[in-house]
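User: Second chain of the day. Same drill as before.
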Amino acid sequence: MARVCEICGKGPAMGNSVAHRGKAKYLGGVGTKITGITRRQFRPNLQRVRVTTPNGTHKTMRVCTQCIRNGAITKTIRHRPFKLPAQDASEPPKAQPRKKKSKKKSEKP
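Assistant: Same format as last time:
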């Protein structure tokens, strides 16, 4: 089905669209009036995301943003940036000494 989250099943929900007119009383007006109520549809915020499934395959799914934020899915890692070369576990990384800045004395005549 379209417009449905594939993880939690969240889909479109019906509600009311309320139209107002007038100036609020706290702003010095006579109050706001409801001029119309019509039915409307609240749609979930669905995104297409590449997901790593539990068996290790990758799949594109339509997932709502709440499931992405809550960690209900694991996104596919396409690139691993800043990968450091492997080091021996027995040797800790060595710190390099800092270079001292030498101050040049200006000669005054």
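The mean pLDDT is 87.

User: Great, on to the next one.
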